[in-house]
Structure formats: structure tokens, C-alpha cells
């Protein structure tokens, strides 16, 4: 076309215009073609510049410390900035600024210049403030991660404009307010994590629109309301975690529509109602955790459908019913936690099929029965808790067969039998609790060394043995409790080397010995409880060096000495209990330095002197008990400032003066302040302090007058007595010289001897020869009036020789003829339970008595020796008590004149080879001179003397009865009964409730007493307390005692239920019952004679003496009467 045009137009002007046209056209076309490229390049250059400017401006708003972290941000090319990525055209697409330590806000970041950004990562920094609403301009954003920052405020609704968003992470900030409904507009969202914030209100229903959602995490917020049923539309959801919120209501059934769900965490909310049955059809579930809610109902058998389940946590709900046996189908299960529910029934044997189980917790339910033997198959267990149920039987022998068990807790059940042998070598153990069961065995052999163990509790079982040295090698052991068992022996010194120990409780055992001084090395110790043992000695002062000790309990032992002053250095002590020991002297004032002390109990000791005023410094003290001591003086006035006190007990002391004006004293019961010297105050039962002061002034005035009169009278009396004594001494001296001269004349003619059936001089020589002149190697012991030796004469006979007087010079015998007659009278006493007395030898060199020799020595030495005491079984002890009663009955009622022992103790009750009792040392005191010191002194031994001898020096048969009561109790208790003798010494609530079984000799295991022996022991205790009546007129005679001990009275309650108070309250009515029993036996004997001899005269006597009801019995039984042979013997 152009060529044709050129050819047709030949003029130069035409050519010029044509050329000009071509140039213009070409320029236009070129301009048209180049314009789009230039425009596109210009736009991107502009955007990059704006983006760089936006980032640099944001950098300038950050804290100064963050600038160095973004040092590469300094020019107009953002693609070179660290953490910034661009596309091929230079547009900013990625901001990866996580983990840089940036600090500042997002307010200075202009999101309108970052519209090309696809991924924005700012996690793990210190970004605070609000999320700007301008973030909605990031229209291409696919990934937003702002987690682990300090963002606060509400989520801006503009987030709903990010239509391309797939991942939204706001985890671990301080965001609050409601979750906006606009989040439900993010159609492509697959992962949403708003966990660990402070969101409130309900879960938005609009979240059910996020059909592409795979993970939904809303845990650890403050969300409330119910779970919206719309969540059931999230068909692609695999993980739903909304635990640790305040969500209530029931679990919607629509959750069962989430067929792809693998993890469901809804624990620690307020959900209620039963678990929907639809949950048990989610066969893809791997983890199901609904713990710590209020869910109820039972677990259905359909639980067996969840064959993929590895973790099932339903603890801390209100579930009931049994564990379905179908649970055995969950073979992939590794963790099963059902604790703290109301589930019942027996543990199914199918649980043994869960071979992969590592955690099993069924504690705090109501399961009963024994553990199935299939438990031995669970060899992978690391965590097993069955505590607080009603389980019984023996523990599985192979509970630690897999050598992987770390936590084993079965406390508070009824398990019996020994500790499983597999536990002995279970070196993986970290925590072991077997407490509050009925396990038996020797603790010394049952356990080995556990290198990882940090907590062990074996308390409240029936374990025995000594504490092992192996505990020292448990280097991580921090808590050790073995209280309320039957441990014995001393506390090993190695316990002082367990430096990591924080809690040690060995209370309520039979431990003895002293507290090792090495215990002061336990610098980490917080609690030490050694109460209710038999520990002796002083409290080591090293205990006061324990810097963080908070609780110290050494009560109910036999500790003595003074309370260590260094205890005042235990600045962290909260409670200090040293009660029921034998501490003496004063309360250390340094205890006032323990500023944190809340409980102080020093009761039932022998503390004296004043209450230190330093105790008033204890501002936090709440409970103070210093009762049953010998404290005197006034209660310090500074106690007025002890406002924290809530309970006090100062009873049974010698305190006087006004009570402090503080609430604890003003509101104290009278029992807490009674039995003092002269307290006064506004408490019911105490006198008013004003009247007490007036009364004291009057008493002082009267006392001065009385003292003057008494001194005058005493002066006159002294002069009169002095004159009488001088006259009497002169007369007495003359009489003694005359008598001594007569006696010397008789003794010079013949050495006085009286040995039954022996020639006196020959027997004397044999005794001297057999004892080698009373050499110490033949020493046996000491009696009431001399030293006892063993003499074996040539005929093979053995005698006990009591050397009484060293020479004739010291003899105080008045008349040798009368003395010989008295000795002869004693030799004729014959009773199986009285030591046979052969005679007496009096010689210028030696004077001695000759008795039958007893192989086993005295009752006291037998009871003191643990080995001999164990051989001294209950039947032998019962026989000894009856034998002593028979002997005293013979002396009091069958001898003429009656014999009074005067000094009956366990030391003069001798035992022969067969443990038959023989009373010795009786009658000899009455043979001494009437004017000798022994005649006017109190007859008897302290601890056995009847109380009336405190005001009367004339002993009676009732004094022997009292001594017998003490010996009877001593025989069954294994030691002197001490304070149990008197009601006044046992008036505390604890003493009144003390059980008989607890004071019996524990070396013979009173709990294992047979029925017959138990009846006899209770009978002996009853009779003993009757004999210990303070009023001698209320005591029975020894004849009554001897007869009552012959009867066997059935127990009306178990031995374990018999208390000392019940026995002590027995009165004359009990003896009335005994007399009624005797009358009944006489009636039966008469009945027997009438029946067998059919004598009309006997029948008339019978009818006169008996009641009509008994006559009816006679005629009713006449055809088939069988008399008990024991009754016949007693009658005859």
C-alpha cells in the first residue's frame, strides 16, 4: 500500500509530507508501546519506597535497644533489610521478624504500604500495645503469627477482612475482650490459636463457618458460656483444645460428628451432665481428656470402640458405676486416669490386656475387692495409683517386674500381707506410698537402695524390724514417714548423714535409745516427728542448729534433762511439742526468740520456776499448753499483748495472781486454769482479783499473830521436851546396860542357834564353809533386812542365807528366850506360796536367817529382763498373782495370830523353777526391838505403801491388800504401774480414755491374748483397782480377793474396748455381784444334795432357804440334771 502510494505520488512536496507522516506515526506507535512498561516499573518503585519508609518509620518508634537488632534497615531498598523478603518484582511479601528480641508497639507500622505482604511473623518478641485495625489492609496475608508477645486489648474486627488467611496465631499474649464474630468470615482458615490470653465471653457461633479448620486452640482463657453446637460442622477438625476456661453446660452431641477428630481437650471447665454417647463413636480419637469437670453418669461398654485411643483422662469428675470390661479392647492405651470420681465395683481382669499401659490412676473412688492377678502383666507401668479405695487382699507380686515403676501409691486401703518382693529391687522408684493399710513384714529386709527415691510413706501398717542403714544411700530421699508401726531399736546414726532429708516422721513406734547428735547435720530438715516412742536421754543441743526446721514433735517419750537453750535458734519453727516427757528445770527464755512460733506444748513434764516473760514476744503464738508441770509465780503481765492466742492451758501448776486480760485467757474454760495456787480473774470458777487482794491482806495480818503465838508455844514445848528426853535417856541407858549384861551371860554359855532338824553348831559350820565366810561370789541379792547368799551344802541341798546382823555387839534383840520361840513359830508356817523358813543362827561373828532357795529370783528382776519377761507368759503371770493372793489370805485369815507382811513388793515375791510365786521377807520386822528406829518408821517401800501410812504408823491387813494391788498391776503391765495407781494422778482426758491393752506388757503382744487369758487379765486388773482404793475400808479382804480370782467371768466387751477408767470405777456393787455368785453356788450345791439323796429334811431346808422361782427350776430339772464338777468341788 505504501509502495503503491509512493509510486503514484511523485512530487517532492508529497514526499516531504509522507516522510513527516511516517516519522510521526512511528513515534506515536513507539510511545504507545513503551508507556505500559514504564508505568508498571514506576508503580513498583513507588511501592518499594513506601514500604521501606513504613518499615523505617516503625523502626524509629521501637525502643532504642531494638535499633541495633535492625541495623541493616537504613536505605530505600527494603529487599536488603534483614527479615524482609520480596518477590521478583521487588514487592515486599514476607516479614520474618520472630525471635529477635524487639520491643515496642505496632502503632507506628503503616500496614497500608505493605499490601503485598503474604506472611507476617513477629513471634517471641516483646511487642506490646494493641493490634492496629489497619492490619486489615493486608489483603493478601496468608500467615499471621504474633504469639509470645505482650499484646493487649481486643482483637480488631478488621481481622475478618483477611480473606486469604490460612494461619492465625495469637497464642500467649494479654489479649482480652470477646472473640469477634468476624473471625468466622475467614473461609480459608485452617489453624486458629488464641490460647493463653484473657478472652472472655462465649465461643463465637460463627466459628462453625470455618469449614477448612483443622486445629482450634482456645485453651487457658476466661471463656464462659456453653460449647456451641455449630462446632459440629467443622468436618475437617482433627484437634479441639478448649481446656482451662469457665465453660459450662453439657458437651453438645454434635461433637460426635467430628469424625476426623484425634485430640479432644476440654478438661478443667465447669461442664456437667453425662458424657454424650456420640463421643464413644469417634473412632479416630487418640487423646480424650475431659478431666476436672462436673460430668456424671457411668462409662458405657461402647468405650471399647475407641481402639485408637492412647490417653483417656476422666479424673476429678462425678462419674459413677464400674469400669466396663470392654476397656480391655483399648490395646493402644498408654495413660488411663479415673481418679477422684465415685466409681464402684471391682477392677476388671481385662485391664491386664493393656500391655502398653504406662500410667494407671484409679485413686479416690469406691473400688473394692482384691486386685486381679492380671495386674502382673502390666510390666510397662511407670505410674500406678490406687489410693483411697476399699481394696483388699495382697498386692501383686510382680508389680515392678518391668523395672520401670516410678510412682506407686496404694495408701488408705485394706491391703494385707507382705510387701511385694519385686519392689525390693525396683531401683526406678521415685515416689512410694504404702501408708494406711495392714501390710506386714520386716522393714529391714523388705527394701533395698533406691537411687532416685524422693518420697516414701509406710506409716499406719503392721511393719516391724529396725531402721536400716540402707536409707543413707537413697541420696535423693527428701521425705520419709514410717509412723504407727512396730519398729524397735535405736535411731541409726547414719540418719544424720541424709543431708537432703526434709521430712522425717518415725512417731508412734517402739524406738528406744537416744536421739543421735548427728541429726543436727540435717540442714534441709523442715519437719521432725519422733513422738510416742520410748526414746530416752537428753535432747541433743545440735537440734537447735537446724536453720529451717518448721515442726518439731518429741512428745510422749522418756526424754529428760532440761530443754536445750539452743532451740531458741530455730528461727523458722511453727510448732514445738515436747509434752509428756520428764523435762526438768525452767522453760528457757530463749524460746521467746522463735518469732514465727504458732504452737507451743510443754505439758506433762516436771518444769519448775517462773514462766519467762520472754514468751510474750511470740506475737504469732496461737496455742500455748504448759499444764501439768510445777510452774510457780505470776503469769507475766506482758501476756496482755499476745493477741494471736486462741487456746491456752495452764492447769495443774502452782501459779497465782491475775490472769492476763487477753481473749484467750478471758474465754478459757475452767479446766484450762484449774488446780493452781491462787489464780484470779473474770473466768467462771475463779475468784475476783479485788476480793483476793483484800483476803490476802487479812490473811497476812492473822498469820503474823499466829506466828507470834506459835513461836512462843514452841519455845515452851521445846524446853519441856528437852527435859523429858534427858530423863528418858538416863532411864533407857540404865535398862540397856542391865539387859546387855544378862544376854552376854547366856551367849557366853552357848552360841544361840535354831535350825529345824539340824544340829545348830554343825549346820552353822557348813554354812560358813559353803559360802566361804560369806564371800561376794555367792552374793544373790539384798532382801528387806539383809544381804542374801546362796549356800549349797554337802548333801546337795541349796539354801538362801540372809545375813542380818554382823556381830553380837550390834544385836538389838531384847530377850533371846522370847526370840527363840518366835523363830520356832515361823518355821512351822506351811504354805505352797510362802518361802519355807528353816531357822536362825546367832553367833558372835555372824547372824543369819535360813530360807528355801528360789531358782528364778525375784519377780522384779524377771520383769526387768526383756528375755526372761518374754518367757514369763500370761498364764504364768496369772498364776503368780493368784499364788500371792492365796499366800496373803493364809497369813491374814488362817494364821493365829494373823501375820501382816508390812513390806510386800515385787522384790520379795520369789519364783521357783516352774514360775510358782513364793512370798518372802514377812514377819521379821516385828521381831526387832520395840524401841528401835524400825519400829516407829513407816513400814514398807515407796511405791507400795498404802496412803494411810502417811498419817498412821500402825500397819493393818489392808496395807498388805494395797501392796498386793500394786504388785498385781506390775505383773500384767511388766513394770511398776506408777501414775495408774491413783485416780488423782490420772485425771486428764487422755488418762481417762487410756485403754487397758495399751498399758499391758507390750513385750507379750497383748493384742494376741487368748480369750481365757484375756478374761483372767481383765479380772486381775479389776481386783487390783479395788485393792488400790484410798479408803482402806473400801478395800476387800485378801480372802475375798483370793476367792474372786478363782472365778472366770466372761468379758462383756472385747479386750481392746476395756479402759482403765471403767476398771477404776468398780465399786462395792461389783463385789456384791461376786457374793451373789457365791450364794448361787451354795444354792446349787444344796440343790445337788436334795436331788441325789432325795431326803425330805434336806428338801424342807431347801424350800425354806430358796426362792419359789428356784424351786420351780428344781422340779423342772429333776429329771435331767447334770451338776458341773467344778461347782461340786467348790461346794465340798
Descriptive overview:
- The chain is of the alpha/beta class.
- The chain folds into six domains: 1-177, Ribonuclease Inhibitor (Leucine-rich repeat, LRR (right-handed beta-alpha superhelix)); 459-690, Leucine-rich repeat, LRR (right-handed beta-alpha superhelix); 691-741; 750-853, 2-Layer Sandwich (Phosphorylase Kinase, domain 1), CATH 3.30.200.20; 860-1066, Orthogonal Bundle (Transferase(Phosphotransferase), domain 1); 1079-1131, no CATH class.
- The chain is 26% helix and 19% strand.
- The protein has 22 helices and 58 strands.
- The strands form seven sheets. The protein has a 25-stranded mixed sheet, with no helix packed on it. The chain has a twelve-stranded parallel sheet with strand order 15-17-19-21-23-25-27-29-31-33-35-37. The protein has a six-stranded parallel sheet with strand order 3-5-7-9-11-13, with no helix packed on it.
- The chain is elongated, with a radius of gyration of 49 Å.
- The model is unreliable at 1-44, 743-757, 805-815, 924-937, 984-989, 1067-1082 and 1093-1132 (pLDDT under 50).
Short description, anyone?
This protein has 1132 residues and is of the alpha/beta class. The chain has 22 helices and 58 strands.
Amino acid at each position: 500500500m505504501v509502495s503503491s502510494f509512493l509510486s503514484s505520488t511523485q512530487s517532492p512536496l508529497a514526499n516531504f509530507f509522507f516522510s513527516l507522516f511516517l516519522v510521526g506515526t512511528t513515534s506515536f506507535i513507539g510511545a504507545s508501546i513503551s508507556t505500559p512498561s514504564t508505568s508498571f516499573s514506576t508503580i513498583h518503585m513507588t511501592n518499594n519506597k513506601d514500604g521501606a519508609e513504613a518499615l523505617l518509620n516503625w523502626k524509629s518508634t521501637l525502643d532504642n535497644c531494638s535499633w541495633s537488632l535492625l541495623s541493616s534497615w537504613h536505605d530505600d531498598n527494603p529487599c536488603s533489610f534483614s527479615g524482609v523478603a520480596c518477590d521478583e518484582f521487588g514487592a515486599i511479601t514476607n516479614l520474618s521478624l520472630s525471635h529477635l528480641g524487639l520491643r515496642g508497639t505496632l502503632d507506628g507500622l503503616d500496614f497500608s504500604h505493605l499490601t503485598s505482604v503474604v506472611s507476617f511473623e513477629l513471634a517471641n518478641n516483646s511487642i506490646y500495645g494493641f493490634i492496629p485495625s489497619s492490619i486489615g489492609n493486608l489483603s493478601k496475608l496468608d500467615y499471621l503469627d504474633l504469639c509470645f508477645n505482650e499484646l493487649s486489648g481486643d482483637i480488631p474486627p478488621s481481622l475478618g477482612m483477611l480473606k486469604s488467611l490460612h494461619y492465625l496465631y495469637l497464642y500467649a499474649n494479654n489479649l482480652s475482650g470477646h472473640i469477634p464474630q468476624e473471625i468466622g468470615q475467614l473461609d480459608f482458615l485452617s489453624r486458629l490459636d488464641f490460647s493463653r490470653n484473657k478472652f472472655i465471653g462465649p465461643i463465637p457461633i460463627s466459628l462453625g463457618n470455618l469449614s477448612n479448620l483443622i486445629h482450634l486452640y482456645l485453651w487457658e482463657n476466661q471463656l464462659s458460656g456453653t460449647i456451641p453446637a455449630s462446632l459440629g460442622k467443622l468436618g475437617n477438625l482433627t484437634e479441639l483444645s478448649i481446656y482451662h476456661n469457665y465453660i459450662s453446660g453439657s458437651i453438645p452431641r454434635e461433637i460426635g460428628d467430628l469424625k476426623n477428630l484425634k485430640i479432644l481437650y476440654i478438661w478443667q471447665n465447669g461442664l456437667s451432665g453425662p458424657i454424650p454417647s456420640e463421643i464413644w463413636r469417634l473412632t479416630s480419637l487418640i487423646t480424650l481428656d475431659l478431666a476436672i469437670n462436673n460430668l456424671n453418669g457411668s462409662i458405657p461398654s461402647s468405650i471399647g470402640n475407641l481402639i485408637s485411643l492412647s490417653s483417656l483422662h476422666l479424673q476429678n469428675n462425678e462419674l459413677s458405676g464400674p469400669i466396663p470390661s470392654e476397656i480391655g479392647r483399648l490395646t493402644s492405651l498408654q495413660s488411663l486416669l479415673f481418679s477422684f470420681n465415685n466409681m464402684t465395683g471391682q477392677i476388671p481382669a481385662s485391664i491386664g490386656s493393656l500391655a502398653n499401659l504406662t500410667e494407671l490412676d484409679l485413686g479416690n473412688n469406691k473400688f473394692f475387692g482384691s486386685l486381679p492377678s492380671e495386674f502382673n502383666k502390666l510390666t510397662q507401668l511407670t505410674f500406678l495409683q490406687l489410693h483411697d479405695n476399699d481394696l483388699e487382699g495382697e498386692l501383686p507380686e510382680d508389680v515392678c517386674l518391668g523395672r520401670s515403676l516410678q510412682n506407686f501409691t496404694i495408701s488408705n486401703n485394706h491391703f494385707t500381707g507382705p510387701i511385694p518382693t519385686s519392689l525390693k529391687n525396683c531401683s526406678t522408684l521415685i515416689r512410694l506410698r504404702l501408708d494406711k493399710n495392714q501390710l506386714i513384714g520386716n522393714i529391714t529386709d523388705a527394701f533395698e537402695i533406691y537411687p532416685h527415691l524422693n518420697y516414701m510413706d509406710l506409716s499406719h501398717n503392721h511393719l516391724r524390724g529396725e531402721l536400716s542403714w540402707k536409707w543413707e544411700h537413697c541420696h535423693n530421699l527428701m521425705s520419709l514417714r514410717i509412723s504407727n508401726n512396730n519398729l524397735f531399736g535405736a535411731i541409726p546414726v547414719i540418719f544424720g548423714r541424709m543431708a537432703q532429708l526434709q521430712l522425717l516422721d518415725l512417731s508412734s513406734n517402739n524406738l528406744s535409745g537416744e536421739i543421735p547428735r548427728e541429726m543436727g547435720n540435717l540442714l534441709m530438715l523442715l519437719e521432725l516427728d519422733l513422738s510416742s516412742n520410748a526414746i530416752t536421754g537428753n535432747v541433743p543441743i545440735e537440734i537447735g542448729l537446724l536453720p529451717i526446721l518448721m515442726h518439731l514433735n518429741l512428745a510422749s517419750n522418756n526424754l529428760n534433762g532440761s530443754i536445750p537453750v539452743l532451740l531458741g535458734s530455730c528461727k523458722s519453727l511453727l510448732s514445738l511439742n515436747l509434752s509428756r516427757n520428764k523435762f526438768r528445770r525452767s522453760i528457757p527464755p530463749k524460746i521467746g526468740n522463735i518469732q514465727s512460733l504458732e504452737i507451743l506444748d510443754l505439758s506433762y513434764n516436771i518444769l519448775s520456776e517462773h514462766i519467762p516473760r520472754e514468751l510474750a514476744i511470740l506475737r504469732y503464738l496461737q496455742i500455748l499448753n504448759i499444764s501439768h508441770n510445777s510452774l510457780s509465780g505470776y503469769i507475766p503481765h506482758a501476756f496482755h499483748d499476745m493477741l494471736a492466742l486462741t487456746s491456752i492451758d495452764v492447769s495443774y501448776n502452782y501459779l497465782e495472781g491475775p490472769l492476763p486480760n487477753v481473749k484467750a485467757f478471758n474465754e478459757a474454760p475452767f479446766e484450762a486454769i484449774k488446780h493452781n495456787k491462787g489464780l484470779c480473774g473474770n473466768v467462771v470458777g475463779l475468784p475476783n482479783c479485788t476480793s483476793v487482794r483484800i483476803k490476802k491482806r487479812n490473811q497476812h495480818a492473822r498469820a503474823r499473830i499466829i506466828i507470834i503465838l506459835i513461836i512462843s508455844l514452841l519455845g515452851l514445848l521445846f524446853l519441856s521436851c528437852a527435859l523429858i528426853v534427858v530423863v528418858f535417856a538416863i532411864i533407857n541407858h540404865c535398862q540397856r546396860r542391865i539387859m546387855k549384861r544378862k544376854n552376854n551371860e547366856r551367849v557366853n554359855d552357848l552360841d544361840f542357834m535354831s535350825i529345824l532338824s539340824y544340829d545348830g553348831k554343825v549346820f552353822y559350820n557348813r554354812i560358813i564353809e559353803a559360802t566361804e565366810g560369806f564371800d561376794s561370789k555367792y552374793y544373790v541379792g539384798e532382801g528387806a533386812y539383809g544381804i542374801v547368799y546362796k549356800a549349797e551344802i554337802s548333801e546337795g541341798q541349796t539354801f538362801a542365807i540372809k545375813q542380818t546382823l554382823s556381830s553380837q555387839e550390834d544385836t538389838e534383840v531384847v530377850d533371846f528366850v522370847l526370840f527363840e520361840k518366835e523363830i520356832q513359830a515361823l518355821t512351822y508356817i506351811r504354805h505352797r506360796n510362802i518361802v519355807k523358813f528353816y531357822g536362825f543362827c546367832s553367833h558372835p561373828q555372824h547372824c543369819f536367817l535360813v530360807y528355801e532357795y528360789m531358782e528364778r529370783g525375784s519377780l522384779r528382776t524377771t520383769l526387768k529382763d526383756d528375755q526372761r519377761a518374754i518367757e514369763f507368759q500370761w498364764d504364768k503371770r496369772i498364776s503368780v498373782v493368784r499364788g500371792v493372793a492365796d499366800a496373803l489370805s493364809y497369813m491374814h485369815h488362817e494364821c493365829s495370830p494373823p501375820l501382816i507382811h508390812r513390806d510386800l513388793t515385787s522384790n520379795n515375791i520369789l519364783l521357783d523353777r516352774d514360775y510358782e510365786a513364793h512370798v518372802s521377807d514377812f514377819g521379821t520386822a516385828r521381831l526387832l526391838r520395840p524401841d528401835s528406829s524400825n519400829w516407829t518408821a513407816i513400814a514398807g517401800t515407796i511405791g507400795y505403801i498404802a496412803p494411810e501410812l502417811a498419817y498412821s504408823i500402825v500397819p493393818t491387813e489392808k496395807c498388805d491388800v494395797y501392796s498386793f494391788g500394786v504388785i498385781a498391776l506390775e505383773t500384767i503391765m511388766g513394770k511398776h504401774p506408777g501414775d495408774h495407781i491413783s485416780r488423782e494422778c490420772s485425771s486428764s482426758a487422755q488418762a481417762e480414755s487410756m485403754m487397758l491393752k495399751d498399758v499391758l506388757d507390750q513385750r507379750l503382744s497383748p493384742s494376741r491374748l487368748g480369750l481365757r487369758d484375756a478374761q483372767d487379765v481383765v479380772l486381775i486388773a479389776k481386783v487390783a483397782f479395788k485393792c488400790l482404793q484410798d479408803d482402806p475400808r473400801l478395800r476387800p479382804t485378801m480372802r475375798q480377793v483370793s476367792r474372786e480370782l478363782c472365778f472366770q467371768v466372761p468379758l462383756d466387751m472385747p479386750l481392746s474396748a476395756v479402759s482403765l477408767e471403767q476398771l477404776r470405777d468398780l465399786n462395792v456393787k461389783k463385789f456384791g455381784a461376786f457374793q451373789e455368785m457365791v450364794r448361787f453356788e451354795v444354792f446349787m450345791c444344796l440343790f445337788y444334795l436334795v436331788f441325789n439323796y432325795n431326803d425330805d429334811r434336806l428338801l424342807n431346808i431347801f424350800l425354806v432357804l430358796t426362792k419359789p422361782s428356784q424351786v420351780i427350776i428344781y422340779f423342772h430339772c429333776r429329771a435331767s440334771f447334770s451338776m458341773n464338777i467344778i461347782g461340786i468341788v467348790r461346794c465340798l
